[in-house]
Design brief:
By secondary structure, the chain is of the alpha/beta class. Helix content is 49%, strand content 17%. The chain has 14 helices and nine strands. Helix 2 links the parallel strand 2 and strand 3. Helix 6 crosses helix 7 and helix 12 runs antiparallel to helix 13. The protein is globular, with a radius of gyration of 21 Å. The two termini are 28 Å apart.
């Protein structure tokens, strides 16, 4: 995959980073990786080198200023993107599993369809059941290695279409799903992140929406049917540690109105420029579709995607059961049966059997590292 660069955004969780590289090594990741580390100096660079990942994975390690604010975090992403020389780029997290054949399929799709600016396949939630004590992570390998737990579809992934920037933005507002993990045309993502930094938006909850709507204004967003990524739920995931308040608390928070207006102005500016309509017309259209199709729906269904919320709770319940009962194999076996009967919904895994089996074996085999 010479046309793709992965930008791996880091701030702590080093055990997940090491696992990410072990996985990339095992399944032969062939594209360039840029590590954008915004944590304090904790020896991660030396640990990666000591494990000799540089012999099998083409990566550059770049330490950026500590991510003590979201503005610094946005600037880190923008700076890392200036290092990307390939036609396509992917922003990655260290706690997720990407399927490299699916990445290659997305690159191929974008090569064949210039009207699309991003592409990816299915994203499913999973949890990893280790043996933590209580609800908190107790050591570096808890939730990093162990048994593959629940796996479920994160959400529906419809393709975003439209022949104008306004049409695509409206369509995206009806099908909101982040493009964070997409394979994206580098020039479009660089422009989007540059505009985000310039906007001076402070609120992190506008981050993914800003990038996604900005990208949608520039082209169509493709969603394929192959398994593209497994998104891991665990107690340190960003959705639980960063975004903690309710939608009403978010709207009532300090600076929300100012950031919302900056958000509207930036996206409306793109619509106006691309469609050659007045800024006021573009802004009115965007305000209407965003408030009705995104904010109102978010308030009605709650803060987090239901899949992530449910599976995180299930992970914690099973962890507690295992920590209490792991000495009695019969009771533990019974607890697993109860869990599978009352918590696990039936899912059709048949198209993804090989991918899931590969991850399952990896989590078990690497747990002894």
């Amino acid at each position: 995959m010479n046309d793709l660069t992965i930008v791996l955004l880091l701030k702590g969780r080093d055990a997940f980073t090491i696992r990410w590289f072990e996985y990339a090594k095992k399944f032969k990741l062939s594209c360039k990786v840029i590590i954008a580390d915004g944590d304090v100096d904790n020896g991660l660079e030396n640990e990666l080198r000591n494990k000799k990942f540089h012999h099998v994975i083409n990566y550059d390690y770049i330490r950026y200023p500590y991510d003590e604010s979201y503005k610094i975090f946005y600037a880190k992403i923008h700076a890392a993107l200036t290092k990307v020389e390939t036609q396509y780029v992917l922003l990655a997290s260290n706690d997720d599993f990407y399927f490299f054949d699916a990445l290659e399929s997305s690159v191929h799709f974008l090569n064949e369809n210039p009207e699309f600016v991003t592409s990816r396949g299915e994203i499913w939630d999973l949890n990893v059941i280790s043996s933590p004590s209580g609800f908190k992570i107790s050591n570096d390998k808890d939730h990093v290695y162990g048994d593959l737990g629940s796996v479920k579809r994160l959400y529906f992934h419809p393709t975003v279409l439209g022949d104008s920037a306004k049409d695509r933005v409206v369509d995206y507002s009806l099908k909101s799903h982040s493009v964070f993990h997409d394979v994206i045309r580098t020039k479009n993502l660089k422009e989007a992140c540059g505009a985000l930094v310039k906007s001076k938006i402070n609120d992190f909850r506008f981050f993914e929406s800003f990038i996604s709507f900005f990208v949608a204004s520039h082209g169509k967003i493709h969603r394929g049917g192959e398994l593209y990524m497994l998104h891991q739920c665990h107690p340190e995931m960003a959705a639980l540690t960063v975004i903690g308040d309710t939608p009403l608390e978010w709207i009532d928070s300090a600076g929300w109105n100012e950031d919302l207006d900056r958000f509207f102005n930036s996206i409306a500016g793109q619509i106006s420029k691309i469609d050659k309509i007045t800024f006021q017309e573009a802004k009115c259209e965007f305000i209407e579709c965003y408030l009705v199709n995104v904010v109102l729906k978010t308030m009605m269904r709650g803060q987090l995607p239901q899949g992530s919320t449910e599976i995180s709770i299930k992970t914690q319940i099973v962890s507690v059961i295992k920590s209490v009962l792991r000495r009695n194999r019969f009771i533990l076996y019974t607890a697993k049966k109860i869990y599978s009967m009352f918590f696990v919904r039936k899912q059709d895994y048949s198209p993804f059997v090989k991918e899931l089996e590969d991850v399952k074996k990896f989590l078990k085999s690497e747990s002894n590292i």
